[in-house]
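Structural prep section.
Before we set up the soaks we want a predicted structure of the protein with flavin-adenine dinucleotide in place, mainly to decide which crystallisation condition to try first. Input record follows.
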Amino acid sequence: MSVLVFAENWEGRFKKSTYEAVSYAAEIARQLNTSCTAVVIGAVSEEDKKGLGKYGATKVLSVANDKLKNLEAGVYTHILGDAAKSVGATHVVISFTYTGKAIAPRLSVRLKAGLVSGAIALPTSLSPFTVRKKCYSGKGLTDVVISSEIKMVAITPNSYKVNTGGADAAVEVFSPAIPDGEFKVVSKEVKKTSGKIALTEAELVVSAGRGMKGPENWGMIEQLAEALGAATACSKPVADMGWRPHHEHVGQTGITIGPNLYIAIGISGAIQHLAGVSSSKVIVVINSDKEAPFFKAADYGIVGDAFSVVPQLVEAVKKLKAAHN
Ligand SMILES: Cc1cc2nc3c(=O)[nH]c(=O)nc-3n(C[C@H](O)[C@H](O)[C@H](O)COP(=O)(O)OP(=O)(O)OC[C@H]3O[C@@H](n4cnc5c(N)ncnc54)[C@H](O)[C@@H]3O)c2cc1C
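Run finished without errors. Recording the tokens verbatim:
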């Protein structure tokens, strides 16, 4: 019996969601009285690999392959499947990120493992192995029991805390034989957004909807996000109309996020929108209509015209920051 966790990195750096996944896997290992092994694929510094021990990994399997330039879900699945077999993993943890979503179902098939995707907490029971996730677009919770020999959990970012305190992990090179035929993806062009905070990773999110009237009014939204150090998001119609890029669209048909703070400006709060943001720890709603449904889901609300409230908020945040510097 042992626990395996995929320690995802982006261009050689671990994300916060990676530390959450390792902490989560290590806690399951602790409860099962067994060890936690992390798998790192790609060029990450030795120090960072060892450092996964701080979050509870006892061992790190380090995989480097010259052919692996970008994410190849099939190849990653092959590597993680072999790693799971080599350590006799009975439990496998992966982050429910874009990468995790591409790998988890494939790995589940390969390992014949039951998978709970989008888990939001530690297992409520280890035997039978039961994990909680959201259902009905976030309106309900369901406890899923996995009865297969190997159990897999894809944990939602920002839903489990980062635990620290462990010692350095032992790093071992792991070189599974990957048949050439497994490399199927040809990357012709990689377009990167730079200098922005990734929405899925963000702890603070400033989001706006159709109440902003048009794309020309997004300057104040960006100013607020910049002042707070937040990522920007939007409602579906805003992305559909091309006011904002599609990667900012949150909700049932967009990205699901769970930041510490979600500020919704000029968004009505339709159920499909709430489905993607209701895991936020604190929700602040700014809307000119006091009957807007979003206020029912809000921790704090401001009834007012965004065009007057947001600039005042930007000034207030800047003043506060200046006072603390
Ligand atoms: C199958 C399906 C899936 C969907 N998936 C999603 C999804 O993933 N994400 C999503 O967002 N939507 C989704 N929708 C659409 C959803 O139902 C709503 O239509 C949408 O969320 C509304 O966007 P909005 O709040 O920006 O616009 P509106 O509903 O038009 O609301 C605008 C809000 O701005 C307020 N406002 C206006 N002027 C001001 C002002 N000056 N200051 C402050 N407030 C102001 C208004 O009072 C209003 O509440 C989906 C719909 C369907 C049918």
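Observations: The radius of gyration is 21 Å.
Flagged for discussion at group meeting.
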